[in-house]
Each structure stands twice: as C-alpha cells, then as structure tokens.
Amino acid sequence: METRIGLDSLVFGLDIGTRNVVGVVGCVENDIFKVVAMSEREHESRSMLDGQIHDIYKVGEKILEVKNDLEAQLDTKLKDVCIAAAGRVLKTINTKGIMEFDEETRITKDHVFSMELQAIENAHKKVNEEDAEAKFFCVGHSAVRYLLNGFEISNLEGHKAKKIEVDLIATFLPEEVVDSLYMAVEHADLKVASLTLEPIAAINIAVPENFRLLNLGLVDVGAGTSDICLTKDGSIIAFGMIPVAGDEITEAIARHYLVDFKTAEQIKMIASSKPKGQVKFKDVMGIEQKINVSDINKVASEPIGEMAKETASRIKELNGGKSCNAVFVVGGGGKMSGYTQTLAKELGLPKERVAVRGADVLESVDFSAVSFQKDSLYVTPIGICTNFYNQKNNFVFVSVNESRVKLYDNNHLTISDALVQIGYSNSDVFPKRGKALSFSINGVQRQVKGKSGEGAIIKLNGKPANLNSKIGQNAKIEIKNSTAGEDANLTLNKLEELSSPVKLTLNGELLELPKIVYVNGETKPEDYDILEGDHLRVENYYTVKQLCDCLGMKALDNEIFVNGEEANPITKIYSGDSITASSYIKSNENASNPDNKYLTLTNGLEVENYEEDIEELEKAKERGRKKAMLEEEKKLKEEAKKSIDLKNIDESSIGKMSASFTKKNKISNDKFMNEIIKSNTFSENIAKPGNQEELAQVAADVVVVEKKSEIPNKITKGITIFVNNEPVKLSGKSDYILVDLFQFYEFDLSKPKGVVVLKQNGNKGEYTAPLKEGDKIDLYWEDITQ
C-alpha cells in the first residue's frame, strides 16, 4: 500500500546532514511520537560542505538508499518527505504584520495566518531589497508576540478586536540552497511535504514551549554548521548560523595524526563517546597508532575553542549584545569533550548552564520499535517529523513554472492564490491588446484600440486548468504568458467621416463625390495607413475650383452659379447644393490628359496638378521680356511716324505682366489678363489670346499704350487714392481707370499667391472702372487652396 501523510498516518522525516543522512518514519499517538522505522547512511565522499549540497546526485543516491531501507522495513512505499535546511547564508528578518477591521471582529485562525503571511511577505521583500542579486526563499518563521488592540496576548483566536498585530521572525536561505535540497529529494523519487529550518526542528524537541518563557539558547552542532536558536517570553526571537562545526575538529585530528578524513572522523566519534581509554588506527604510512583519548581531546581543544568563541559571539549578537540565561547543545559535533565548558566560559555562564541534551529531551519519543537508542544525534530528524504536525493545514508547497511557493492552506486554495503569492503580473495572465493608434480628426482626439491577444495557457499537474482550479500540496503549476494582439491600424477609406459622400446636383445631374481629407496638411491616397500622432482634416465641401478640377472643367470657361448665386473659384459647395455651369461637359480622361501624367488619385478624387518647372518658367519670362522690348521699340518708331503720343508707355508694367503668367496661377492670371484685354490699356492691334497655352506668349507680346487723346489740349491732373489704407498719388493723365493704379502702387504679380482680389470702395472692382479722388481700394491675394 501507499503511505499518505496526515494526522493519523505515518510521517517521513529526513535529516540531510553534512556527514550523514538520517531517515525517520513515525506517527503521533497520545502525544507520543512513535518511531516505527529508522535508517542512517554516511556520505562516502564530501558531497556536502557546511550544510550545502555540492553533489546533488551523490546526495540523492544516499537519500534513495535510506528510502529503500525504510520501505523494506515498512513494506510500503514512501512518496512524501519532510526536510530541513541549514545553510551558510542564513538571513533572519524581524518583521511585523497588521490587520485592521472596520468593526469589532471575532478573530479566527484564518485571520491570524493571513496576518502572518503578510508579515512573511514583508520580510521577503526586505531581504530581496538588501541583496538584489540573490533570490531568497523563506524556510522558517516564528511569531515572537501577538497584540490585540495594542495589548500583548499569547493567543488571538476567539477574541474580538478591531486591530491585531504580530511581531514575527522569518528565516531565509538563497534559492539555490533550497533548490539543491529539492533536487536531491526528487532524485530519490520523493516529494517535499514540509520544509523547515534545522534549529526550528531541533528546538521543537529540545526546548518545549513551557520553557520558552526563559531567555534560552539552542545550538545544533552538526558537521558543517552550528545552527543557533534563541527563545524569550514564550517565543522564538532569533535564528542564526556559523559555518564552523564538527568538521573543523575532524580536520585538526587528520592533520595532526596523518590520517584521511574518514579515519579522523572515526577517531573523533570514539573519543567523544568515552572519557578514557585509547583509540587504535593506522596512519597514511600504514603504521598502527594507539592514542589516549585525553591526547586526542588536547588536539581537538584548539578548533573547539575557536568554534565555542564564534558561537558565543553569534549568540550575543542575536540576543541584543548579551548572553542568554542557559544554552542547550544537540548534535554530534557538540559531544566532544570540553566544548560545553568552553562555550560557557565564552558566554560568562556557569558551566552547568551549558549542557548537551539527548535522551532527556526525547522523553516524548518512543524508540521501542527500532534498534536505535535515544541520542542527541536524532533530535533534529525527530523534530523534522513533529514539525510537520505543527505545519499541517497551515502551509502547503506548490511549484509555479518550477519556482517553489509556500502558501497558507485555507482549504480552498486556487491557482490564482499561487500566482498572487509570487507576484505574477495580471497583464501576463489576461489577453493583451496590441498598441493603440492615436490621431486627431478636425481637432478632436481619437484612439483605435489594438486587437486582443490570447489569454495565458495554464496547466495543473500536466492537465489544462484555469485560475479557479483548486490546488493542494506539491501541485505543479505551469503557466505560459498571455500574448498581445496586433497593433491597431486604420486606412483613410475606413474612416466613418468619409463613409458619406458630398452629394450635389450639377445642371440637374446628381453627383456623389468623396470627401477631401488632409493628413498633416497634405492630401493622401485612400489606402494611406494612418500613423500615430497624425492630424487629419476632413472637408465636407468642395470649392468651385476643386469641383472644376475634379470634373475636368475650366472655371473661366463657365458661368457658374451655386444655389442661384454667381460663384467664384473659392465659393464653397456643400451636400445638397445645386450648381449650374454654362458649359459643363464631362471630360474624357484620355482626351483631357493625353500624357496621363497630370492626374493623381486623392481619396478617390482626381485632381489636376500643374507642373512647376521653375527653370523653364524663368526662360520663358526672359524670352517674353526681350521680345516685348523689341516689339515695343518697333511700335514706338511706327507710332512716332504717326505722331501717336507714347509718353505713358510703362516698361515695368510689361515686365510685370509677362512674369505674372505662370502655370501655377493660371486661373487668377487668366481672369486678370481677360480683364486687361477688355480695357483700353491694350493696343487695338494686339490679338486677344485664344487659349490657355497662348497666355505666356501674349504677356510677352503686350505693349501698353494709351490711345491718342481725341481732345488735343486736355489738361492733365493728379489725384490721390487710398490702396490698402495707404495714400497713392496718380499723375500724368486727365482721367484714370482702376488698372492705372498698378503704375503707381507696387504689387508684385510675378510671384502669384492665389487669386487677385480687387475692390473699389468696398465693391467688386472692374479694371476699366473710373477712379476718383479719395477712392478706397483693397488689393490682395486670396489663397483658394484652403
């Protein structure tokens, strides 16, 4: 049959020491621990040093030997084992736990253990902060005192309180020390049911609770370490350890008598077991030696003195700088003659206050079923077994991704409890979203969430599980982090704002046009991927110019009305508007764009882009100037022959007009040129431009002249007008029209910035309109692209 560990079943305790491995199996009956099987094996090599496992598999083999021997004695299989740790890097933390309630509450065991667990977590955090490079594992803890509403009390359970507190001492070892113990045990096909600290296990046997009111010390002298535990006022107040113990004595004997370590260990054990007589052995030379026990004790006195001195120093350090009232010594290393006397001297205590405890402290242990005798050597393994009963229903050990976790057992533990205990991040449990996409539309911030990933994959003992799956002792939890989904992405054509088109009627025909969208001030194609931080502007209208560009119309070839009112290139057209165009013909794409290089697709909208070739433009302007000057000179000579008055010819006007006709500003300059052509500024023999391509050439061919006055003796006069609120004086003529102001007011037409706006006294200006004294003129560029 298989043995199950419980209150009414067998308990398997294992003391994995530096020198040997001791296994004890027993159970409690009527407050007596009955040993039903025992086994002991000595390490054949130094696979452990100072309480630390150096060769996991060799130690594991010794554990397996002990296990097999015990199973043979019991005729049963052993699965679970209780162990204790003793390490070189022991850390003890004094900590505090507090629990407060909104109202007077009856205190239960759950309250007490939850508070203690909180204190342990605080200590764990503190020890990891002190040594960030190492990962520490709590191997034992003990409550020093309890407080009920601020008053000290021995037992909190059953009382009513609004606040309870615990002062607690927790002991930690590096993770690698604990891990090596677990690995060695698992090598023997065993699972750890309980883990404690060796001095805690020893004190449970050597110092009963009714003795703990006194300031007592317990020293467990093993082979590699001397573990220390102190009590006071009914509680364990401190743990400690020094890496000096029985092996130092063995090594001194080996050096002095020229024997190997194993022979020296046998010499030490014989000398410690009898006060007189001789010990026979052979040295490394093969010479047989007979040495008196008293001589061996003299050789051992030096390491014993050093060991006692360090132990006393550590006890005083743990006890607030002073000695304790008495010290109990257990373990094989403390049985050497002279150790207790030397320790008493170092502590300043009477020699009878420091004593080895053995058979007298094992009164509540029944060895009758085994051949072993009561001895201080077995205090620790027996204590490991009885410690299991103290921990039963209090704490369980589970593993999370191979990391061991100690949990308070409230009989309804779940996987989520284990994850909380190890600080597993919630973000690694629940599905993660991909990175969100943030941008703005018309000044309003918007965010698109990323896609959701997959939740964590959880297994319990190799089978699929969830956060609410119940767990017990030695549960094996595996969890694979949740994953993040894809980052958010969005193209322009998926925007809700662009889902509805601009609907209008043109000459009775219903048109649906996509809305125009600008990204960071620039138009983008409809499949453009919106980027983090983009600023989008969606227009719910078209300007007349944009509509004409879209439909392949020329605005100046049409008389365009919007909702019955005359429109200009920057008039805005909204959904529901009605447009009338005098000559709307739907253009054939190939006919209007034979080279297919002036069209781009912007959110489904075809927009004509005029090439901007600055170099060619400058060459054209220069050619225009030269030709104009030659033509002007020729015409001046002809006019001179005809006695025509040419004194008002303005060469600068010619240059300005020729430079103003650029491809970039065709609409505004077309209109300006048409108005100029209609005015008297042009010579009658100059032909009007027939198409857009002739404009630049016409500008170069223009000669500005004034018709000969039909009234020969008409008197010239000057007038003052206000252009953009600045006074401008016109002179040299008897009458003036609006276009004349360009001869006296600097307005650079060579660098077009949109459409020229010209107003006279607040009304739309006509270039041939007469000018009068004091007229107010507004002249500026208006940007039609916005």
Automatic annotation (TrEMBL):
Quick check: keyword Metal-binding in the entry?
A: no
Q: What InterPro entries does the record point to?
A: ATPase_NBD, FtsA/MreB, SHS2_FtsA
Pfam families tied to this protein: FtsA (PF14450)
A biological process from GO: cell division
| SMART domains in the cross-refs | FtsA (SM00842)
> In its keyword annotation, does this UniProt entry include Lyase?
no
Q: Coiled coil where?
A: 607-639
Specify the superkingdom: Bacteria
* The entry's keywords: Cell cycle, Cell division, Coiled coil
Name the residues that span the membrane. Answer: none
SHS2 domain ranges (all copies):
11-206
Query: What is the protein's given name?
Result: Cell division protein FtsA
Source organism per entry reads Lachnospira multipara
